[in-house]
Amino acid sequence: MARKAAGRPQEETLSLWKREQALLKTLVVDRDTEAWQRDLAFSGLQRVGGVDVSFVKGDSVSACASLVVLSYPELEVMYEDCRMVSLTAPYVSGFLAFREVPFLVDAVQQLREKEPRLMPQVLFVDGNGVLHHRGFGVACHLGVLTDLPCIGVAKKLLQVDGLENNALHKEKIRLLKGGGDSFPLMGGSGTVLGMALKSHDHSTKPLYVSVGHKMSLEAAVRLTHGCCKFRIPEPVRQADIRSRDYIRRTLGVQGAPALRPERSKKAQRPKACPQGASEEPAVSCCVINCSVKSTWQRTEPTCPSPCEGAILEVHPPALAVI
DNA sequence: GCGACAG
DNA sequence: ATCTTGTCGC
């Protein structure tokens, strides 16, 4: 039952996606908007969130989208939400958000409705923020659509606007002394697009941190370091671990156990969070119309009637017409 | 054929 | 993202 991912989108679709990115980009706030962000100890910060999407192996459509909320500074999981989703849009570098973000927005909206007191004060996103081909990566996209402060955390350097993972870059990495050390990533225009951060003392590969929304780069880097027990910030790491686990549990019994000769060494899992009384459908209905899926469906061959003038609804009453 | 290629 | 085993180090 492994469905195949759609191929590369038509040029027209990419064109619409670019227009949408340009539009939403005007709504990005790249400075601190919250009091805790300016505090040296981040006092006032109590909840940090992380999101991730993991895939079913051999299937580029079936995936598990997860949102977790951790206490700060303890970094203990307070909330976990995993759900299976079907990703219709293909992955295209520079357009990651159009594939993954609708489901992440849904997860945030579910939390907003059911457990508003657990709403995270900042979200760590797997991927870039303004360090992007057009200055609007998935962390910006999710930030604008949810109106939450977001931090983009990528594991590899996106070589864009003159940035290169060349010998000089590697040398700068080598010179990072201890956890928390970083150096700026300057784009061709002289703008600092992000920071390469050594997330802890014994990490060779840095993290690439960039602004997503409603937070300065300085605060984003400092908080990222403050959330790293290991190389990957704990919120994203937990979202990743739990979404993979969810797929294993969901697909494990019926899957092909013979193919997995059991070589696990994982000890235990806490299991103390609202993991859904599960009356929920596999895919929740879209509460926030992020127009992403509609753009995709409207444009591709499968959809006979293209309709312009769709409306984009962003969280507070920020509206925009395509 | 070769380099890029967030996830 | 996922495909994949062992291995070196604390």
Automatic annotation (TrEMBL):
Which GO terms fall under biological process for this protein? DNA repair
Pfam families with a match to the protein in the record: Endonuclease_5
For this UniProt record, give its keywords in alphabetical order, as a comma-separated list: Cytoplasm, DNA-binding, Endonuclease, Hydrolase, Magnesium, Metal-binding, Nuclease, Nucleus, RNA-binding
The protein's matches in PANTHER family, at most eight in alphabetical order, are given as: ENDONUCLEASE V
Described function = Endoribonuclease that specifically cleaves inosine-containing RNAs: cleaves RNA at the second phosphodiester bond 3' to inosine. Active against both single-stranded and double-stranded RNAs. Has strong preference for single-stranded RNAs (ssRNAs) toward double-stranded RNAs (dsRNAs). Cleaves mRNAs and tRNAs containing inosine. Also able to cleave structure-specific dsRNA substrates containing the specific sites 5'-IIUI-3' and 5'-UIUU-3'.
Q: What are the GO cellular component annotations?
A: cytoplasmic stress granule; nucleolus
Question: Principal localization?
Answer: cytoplasm
Q: List the top taxonomic levels of the source.
A: Eukaryota, Metazoa, Chordata, Craniata, Vertebrata
Q: Does the keyword Metal-binding apply?
A: yes
Task: Give the protein's recorded name.
Answer: Endonuclease V
Q: Which domain of life is it from?
A: Eukaryota
The UniProt annotation puts the region (Disordered) at: 257-277
**Claim: Transport is one of the keywords in the record:** no
Q: Which cofactor does it need?
A: Mg(2+)
Looking up InterPro entries in the UniProt record yields: Endonuclease-V
Query: How does the record describe its quaternary structure?
Result: Monomer. Interacts with PABPC1; the interaction is RNA-dependent and stimulates ENDOV activity.
> Where in the cell is the protein located?
Cytoplasm, Stress granule; Nucleus, Nucleolus
Q: Name one GO molecular function term.
A: RNA endonuclease activity producing 5'-phosphomonoesters, hydrolytic mechanism
Q: Which family does it belong to?
A: Belongs to the endonuclease V family.
